[in-house]
Amino acid sequence: MPNRKRQDGAETTRRTLVKATALGLGALLVPGTVGTRKAAAATAEETTIDRIKRAGVFNLGAREADPPYGYLDKQSKHVGFSTEIAEKVHERLERELKTKLKINYIAVTGRTRIPLLLNNTIDMEAGATVVTKEREKVVDFSLPFFLTATFILVPADSPIRKVGDLSGRRIGGHRGGLEETLYTSKLQKEGVFRSPVRFIGFENHSEGFTALQGGSIDAYSSDGPLLYGLQQKAPDPAKWRVFDPGINAFAQAFPMRENSSSFANFVNFTIVELCEGGTWQELYQKYFVPTGLPKELDDTLRFLLRFNAWG
């Protein structure tokens, strides 16, 4: 995370890598989800690698509006930090399976990513998905590829400067993300707010930022790099302020279907090699630094590189 001035113990939180807040999987509470889980169970005998080899296609769940992790560029090409790592996984699959594989980009959001995994529509999701206990109950995760935390985006002149200032206010977040439970349950129970906040969910981050610009919400919350990306893409970045309230820290990883250990090996070995060989650092410079994160990695991200360089 950026070496900015930490508030409310944020630096201590980040350095100790506090585990992410568990949340209910709102993403699974969509029509037909039970059926998709049954469908996944019915085809359990075919591994993810078997399916990819049989079909000749690697189905990748890709984000289209979540810079710097995954988005469409001006030529409508899928780009982003997570997207490029997933493309390296695709290259490894072709190399080690010794066959040409089509990469099929399938648009996903925070609400649809896990249902699409469970019904075999996608083989992996490349986004900014946080590892939580509830998600671990239904999917498996790769090695973590990034460490971050929940930040807050507000107008530059907003009186909101710490998490307690959100008391009684309207806060937006990604529908299917962890923010709703964080603000309306965990922090409320901990007595952080004098009066309850009103959480408003959005299908994608750009919709949430538009609502903030229009004044229908008082703040928008998500992980730090996403918010810096929104700020930098705004016509007037100086009119917006991003800060770390020091409320959590979490790992981001690629979700996969359970019992896909052979496929997970492809993914994990790719992450390890990118961390060892310098490509991870190149992607960080390419995608994260332009959003406002520092060129030099902080202690947490340097630890992540050492942690993943075990090849």
Task: Describe the protein in words.
- The protein is an alpha/beta fold.
- It folds into two domains: 26-147 and 252-308, Periplasmic binding protein-like II (D-Maltodextrin-Binding Protein, domain 2, 3-Layer(aba) Sandwich), CATH 3.40.190; 150-247, Periplasmic binding protein-like II (D-Maltodextrin-Binding Protein, domain 2, 3-Layer(aba) Sandwich).
- The chain is built from twelve helices and 15 strands.
- The strands form five sheets. It has a five-stranded mixed sheet, with helices on both faces. Strands 5-1-6 form a three-stranded parallel sheet.
- Helix 7 (179-189) links the parallel strand 10 and strand 11 (198-202).
- Helix 4 packs across helix 10 (261-277).
- The longest helix has 17 residues, at 81-97.
Topology:
Elements: H1 10-16, H2 33-42, H3 48-55, E1 57-62, E2 65-66, E3 70-72, E4 78-79, H4 81-97, E5 102-107, H5 113-118, E6 124-126, H6 133-136, E7 140-141, E8 146-148, E9 150-155, E10 170-174, H7 179-189, E11 198-202, H8 205-214, E12 219-223, H9 224-233, E13 240-243, E14 250-252, E15 255-256, H10 261-277, H11 279-287, H12 299-308
Parallel strand pairs: 1-5, 1-6, 10-11, 10-12
Antiparallel strand pairs: 2-3, 3-4, 7-15, 8-14, 9-12, 9-13
Helix pairs in contact: 4-10
Keywords summarizing the entry:
311 residues; alpha/beta; D-Maltodextrin-Binding Protein, domain 2; five-stranded mixed beta sheet; 12 helices; 15 strands
